[in-house]
Amino acid sequence: xxxxxxxxxxxxxxxxxxxxxxxxxxxxxxxxxxxxxxxxxxxxxxxxxxxxxxxxxxxxxxxxxxxxxxxxxxxxxxxxxxxxxxxxxxxxxxxxxxxxxxxxxxxxxxxxxxxxxxxxxxxxxxxxxxxxxxxxxxxxxxxxxxxxxxxxxxxxxxxxxxxxxxxxxxxxxxxxxxxxxxxxxxxxxxxxxxxxxxxxxxxxxxxxxxxxxxxxxxxxxxxxxxxxxxxxxxxxxxxxxxxxxxxxxxxxxx
Length: 254
Hints:
Layout: H1 5-10, H2 12-15, H3 21-30, E1 32-36, H4 42-52, E2 56-60, H5 85-96, E3 101-105, H6 114-118, E4 123-126, H7 131-144, E5 148-154, E6 157-163, H8 169-173, H9 185-188, H10 192-210, E7 224-229, E8 234-239
Parallel strand pairs: 1-2, 1-4, 2-3, 4-5
Antiparallel strand pairs: 5-6, 6-7, 7-8
Helix pairs in contact: 4-5, 4-10
């Protein structure tokens, strides 16, 4: 898939990077990424992906904009209150970069439809705000063999983890969170800038994964969880161990 003259100009600062180059930029143009959630994390992820030239974006979110979203979701404006987040996010992506394709899915993703909605993509970035959704997405990624970047922010802390089947996200959190009534940022609060930091870092990791076939940025860091602390501030990385009893990715898993 070749780059047009306009794309060569647009991505010039990428192309001069030896870790990206023309081959890498064409690779980004060929990829299909699905973003689960157009909230605080998604508001940083979506512009960064669109700006980077990801060829096809799918944005899944069944929610509408609320006034309380705006401190951490700069995709939206006050006049957008009451309108679909996914629709507005796609419009934003198209305005930012006319060379990409983007489509909205105005559905709540869960155990009954996750495989269908995620199938056909090269990478899943999950920025949803509850554990039930995150676990449904993780289980579907395991079954489909899709890499998963899971990103979360609450209060002054954030996490970005990269999973490819074993270990999976369920190995990290276990089965105790398969419910919709677990804590979210609505109860605990979140600094807007924290969500932006986490989302932008997640896209850096996404590009690392997507450029893997052409050399790119080196080790994708499978099974690594990066913990971002906005108060310290600090950054640390841990390795997630495979849970031999995991109900998501172990032999005989559901």
